[in-house]
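Bumping my old thread because nobody answered last time. Still need a sequence for this structure:
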């Protein structure tokens, strides 16, 4: 139950990432990605520096795992999302992001030998269907009119990045200290993202990030999705595995819808509300374990 609560909080924070990202989307995508990781690094450094020194040998020995975690989950997942929004619609992005649980489950079955029972698979299908229903407002016309482009190809990379990250968390994260690993991964992410952001600044000039709203947005992105959500997600994945954890990502459209209603004064239709109930029911069904036989089994 504790792991599910952590994953629920992660989904709420990630939904805030989408809403805040929409508010400050005048900034270039990799500029947002760089400053959020820079802020996160400065916040976590005092907490994790001692752990970095204490586990220095572990980080060196496991450098491939650390590099993989840093590039997939910290540097490029959100960067790809921000970049894709420059070329495609939020509907396309949201639908493709809703595919992450299914892709993660398939990869977990292949590489981690995880299995879901029939009830859990039904929950996965319901949560995915409900997420798409919320995103498209129940309109088949929206689905038929989807036009895939460069942005959608970038979103495929984002889906792949988060799937790989979740699997790496399950395999390797227990080797590293919580705060020290974040310090190292964020340092790597900053090194990788800085030259890409510099290209944006060279092409269009250094953006005006010092407006109060943009500063507040970057602070949120740097502290909550980049730090708190990653810690919660890592702990949740370690407890229940990437298959069940990933299903919570289907709650993102529901929380984004609620956040847009509260903070962006957007309207919510009855169709979206009913779709949200389907998503919640699907997530509940996937994670509900009433007996030992209903647990995720392993070969």
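Sorry it took so long. Here it is:
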């Amino acid at each position: 139950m504790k792991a599910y609560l952590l994953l629920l909080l992660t989904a709420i924070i990630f939904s805030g990432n989408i809403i805040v990202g929409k508010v400050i989307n005048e900034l270039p995508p990799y500029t947002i990605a760089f400053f959020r990781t820079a802020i996160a690094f400065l916040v976590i450094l005092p907490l994790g520096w001692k752990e970095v020194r204490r586990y220095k040998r572990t980080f060196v020995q496991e450098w491939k795992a650390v590099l993989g975690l840093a590039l997939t989950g910290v540097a490029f997942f959100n960067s790809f999302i921000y970049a894709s929004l420059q070329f495609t619609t939020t509907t396309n992005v949201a639908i493709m992001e809703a595919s992450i649980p299914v892709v993660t489950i398939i990869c977990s079955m292949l590489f981690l030998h995880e299995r879901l029972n029939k009830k859990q698979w039904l929950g996965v299908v319901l949560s995915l269907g409900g997420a798409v229903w919320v995103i498209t407002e129940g309109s088949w016309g929206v689905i038929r009119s989807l036009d895939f482009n460069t942005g959608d190809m970038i979103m495929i990379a984002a889906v792949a990045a988060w799937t790989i990250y979740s699997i790496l968390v399950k395999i390797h994260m227990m080797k590293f200290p919580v705060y020290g690993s974040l310090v190292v991964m964020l340092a790597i992410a900053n090194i990788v993202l800085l030259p890409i952001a510099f290209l944006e600044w060279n092409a269009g000039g250094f953006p005006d990030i010092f407006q109060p709203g943009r500063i507040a947005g970057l602070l949120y992105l740097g502290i909550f999705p980049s730090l708190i959500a990653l810690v919660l997600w890592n702990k949740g994945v370690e407890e229940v595995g990437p298959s069940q954890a990933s299903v919570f990502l289907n709650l993102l459209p529901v929380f984004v819808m609620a956040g847009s209603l509260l903070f962006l004064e957007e309207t919510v239709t009855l169709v979206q509300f009913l779709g949200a109930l389907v998503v919640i029911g699907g997530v509940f069904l996937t994670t509900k374990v009433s007996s030992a036989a209903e647990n995720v089994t392993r070969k």
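The two ends are 24 Å apart (CA to CA). Let me know if any region looks off to you.
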